Prior knowledge:
By secondary structure, the protein is mostly beta strands. It has helices spanning 14-17, 210-215, and strands spanning 5-6, 22-23, 27-28, 37-39, 64-66, 75-83, 92-97, 102-107, 117-120, 131-133, 142-144, 164-169, 173-177, 183-187, 191-194, 268-270.
Amino acid sequence: xxxxxxxxxxxxxxxxxxxxxxxxxxxxxxxxxxxxxxxxxxxxxxxxxxxxxxxxxxxxxxxxxxxxxxxxxxxxxxxxxxxxxxxxxxxxxxxxxxxxxxxxxxxxxxxxxxxxxxxxxxxxxxxxxxxxxxxxxxxxxxxxxxxxxxxxxxxxxxxxxxxxxxxxxxxxxxxxxxxxxxxxxxxxxxxxxxxxxxxxxxxxxxxxxxxxxxxxxxxxxxxxxxxxxxxxxxxxxxxxxxxxxxxxxxxxxxxxxxxxxxxxxxxxxxxxxx
Length: 274
């Protein structure tokens, strides 16, 4: 994975003045695998009854969903390209499988190059992009795409720049630490991929204008105090009011102060830092 450089833009308009993008010459943008893609109909934040359950969603550019291999159970291949995924912050690696004579997508970790060989299973080496069971991974390694059980797909650390660190191993469980400080127990037969997820600098980008947010399926955020009483507990009132009660969600749950729910995961040893 090559380094990212800021893209220089002449500030001829106010939107370009606030724009901050990165040059990614190593990314393949157009020639994707048609067999591993399909159309994706967004629900624009509504449930099966048409009621809005997630606010500020809708519109956006037409996108194709890429099917990614999160299981990484078996397979040996070579990385042919690093591609952009409109549904994820991380990049994808296009891999050619020597055994099945077919292509598949995986989450591209940092420092994975075009032409690199990847392997999965117990015979894989300790190298970036290789997937192994936790029992065969050295303590202290940085991992991503971590599964929560044997022969399950990876569910932990899949976004751009994320990772977990293996800090302890026992006979039945492995102890992993998150960047937030949280520590969990994961079955020792669970699989994980070595390395940190790519595109760790994606938070440094600035959209520059509101129109780019609309392209990304994000609608304007409306304050609760600007709504009617039927739409939000803070709505209504004569003139400009401040809500008249402590901050709550549209469904009446407090948004400030202590948490209103507790985790039922008994494998969380150390909770994350507040």
